[in-house]
Design goal:
Order of helices and strands: HHHHHHHHHHHHHHHHHHHH
Helix content: over 70%
Mean pLDDT: 89
Distance between the termini: 47 Å
Strand content: under 5%
CATH class: Mainly Alpha
Number of strands: 0
Largest sheet: none
Shape: globular
Bound molecules: phenylalanine
């Protein structure tokens, strides 16, 4: 067994650097594109409320578990399981994370690519002048269905991601996150202020933030839990890998808390930007929302050009928004690629550049069917290929991963060992009782319920 302390595989420069990088991973299309879409499709404020509970009770719990295993072992997910319990099938959970990461990267990069395409379109003035609803929908449909444009965007996203990852932990991820994350926060706050000061923001805000108890049902809760896993980058070992670069001196509990808080904040702000504008500018109702978006992933891309065209300073705000979306997406794709890269570097002794390039190529190839499933190729579009990928890898596999990580921690590694690791850098863990209860009971039960009712999620 190798000594985890002796490896020179890189580490974060400081606790803040970790928080920036991990928030960069967590905050992304999950909060800005997926969250508002799911809110709209799942009962508005009821979903928001369920999501907040899911983040607090389940997300935070699994995040702390991943960070703890990661820092203790100082390894990628495959190596981490193998380190604590050598030569057992547990390392398959690590492999599952590596594979899930590559698949999520493959379809996530398409949407990131759309953001890149729209950033370009906005700069070149495609949304200047009055853009109507039909107009905007037509622009999106045409763009998403154009194989060449979408594939070029996919190539750019995966290329940039591989480039940053090949530069390593400090020079790559940390350096970029430190610049990009604060910019993102500032941008999103400006846009939220702009949205709530648009005339008549009321009805949108109340759909978004005033829960109606008749809207709560199993599906809403299941999707909210799935969204908590996805938005916090949990269940595939991303946080385990990022945790492996944290110093023993740093407080894992507050680090996890900050990442959960910043991610939730951005998601809530994203909704504050979208809903008032959506309901008022377009006179949209919840039913109409469902009709428009049930089988479409285009919410963000159909709504924003209209807002841009109707807003004073819209050209400027439009560029800001798509820049923001792109930045957020890139700091997340980087973290997805980091998991398989860390595996190949640690376990197979590959160079970072070779690992990042190869996985980049594989993800690009795997992304092609997703790229063609928004109009490019008929049968893939009809099959809803990309949405199915998101359901399987973005919802189910992450939840299963979270379940297995919790079971591993509780039954194989043991809670007392985890608590000992957590105590480094943190003498007083005031949520200890709750965390132990959640990791032992709440997380497994919640995920098992998800798996039992999987049909509800799919249907
Ligand atoms: N959390 C990221 C987002 O919300 C997506 C992600 C999922 C990243 C899983 C890494 C691992 O955009």
């Amino acid at each position: 067994m190798n000594n985890p302390e002796s490896s020179d595989r890189g580490s974060w420069g400081s606790k803040i650097a970790f928080i920036f990088a991990a928030s960069g991973s967590a905050i992304g299309l999950g909060s800005i594109w997926r969250f508002p879409l799911f809110v709209g499709l799942n009962g508005g404020a009821a979903f928001v409320f369920s999501y907040l509970l899911a983040v607090f009770f389940i997300g935070f719990t699994v995040m702390l578990a991943e960070l703890t295993i990661g820092r203790h072992t100082r390894k990628n997910p495959v190596g981490a399981f193998n380190f604590i319990k050598p030569h057992t099938p547990w390392k398959l959970v690590g492999y599952m994370g590596v594979v899930t990461g590559v698949f999520i990267l493959s379809y996530y990069s398409i949407i990131a690519g759309w953001a890149a395409g729209y950033f370009y379109k906005t700069i070149t003035g495609a949304f200047r002048g009055q853009v109507s609803w039909n107009n905007s929908a037509a622009i999106f449909t045409k763009f998403a269905a154009n194989p060449l444009e979408v594939l070029i965007c996919l190539f750019i996203i995966i290329g940039l991601t591989s480039y940053v990852i090949s530069k390593g932990v400090k020079g790559g991820i940390e350096r970029w996150s430190k610049i990009l994350m604060p910019v993102l926060f500032v941008l999103i706050i400006i846009l939220a202020v702009r949205a709530v000061t648009l005339p008549g923001a009321g009805p949108g805000l109340s759909f978004y933030l005033k829960p109606d108890f008749s809207d709560f049902n199993l599906k809403v809760i299941l999707f909210a839990i799935g969204q908590a896993f996805f938005s916090l980058s949990l269940g595939m070992g991303t946080m385990m890998t990022y945790g492996s670069y944290i110093s023993k001196k740093d407080n894992l509990v507050s680090s996890a808390g900050w990442v959960c808080l910043s991610t939730t904040l951005i998601a809530i702000l994203a909704g504050i930007i979208i809903f008032p504008t959506l309901f008022n500018t377009l006179q949209l109702t919840p039913d109409k929302f469902k009709q428009e978006f049930e089988v479409s992933t285009g919410l963000m891309f159909q709504v924003f050009p209209i807002i841009i065209s109707k807003m004073p300073g819209g050209y400027f705000f439009g560029i800001l928004f798509f820049a923001l979306l792109l930045i957020a997406a890139l700091t997340s794709t980087i973290s997805m690629l980091e998991v398989p890269t860390a595996y190949l570097v640690d376990e197979r002794k590959w160079s970072r550049t070779k690992a990042a390039t190869l996985i980049g190529i594989v993800s690009f190839l795997l992304g092609i069917p997703s790229a063609l499933s928004s109009g490019g190729v008929k049968f893939l579009t009809k099959f809803n290929y990309m949405i199915k990928m998101d359901l399987v890898f973005g919802n189910i596999m992450l939840a299963v991963g979270g379940l297995l990580i919790s079971l591993f921690l509780v039954h194989t590694w043991k809670v007392k060992n985890a608590l000992k690791e957590i105590s480094h850098g943190n003498s007083r863990f005031w949520l200890k009782g709750l965390w132990v209860f959640d990791i032992k009971f709440l997380v497994p039960i919640a995920v098992i319920i998800i798996l039992i009712f999987i049909k509800t999620l799919a249907g």
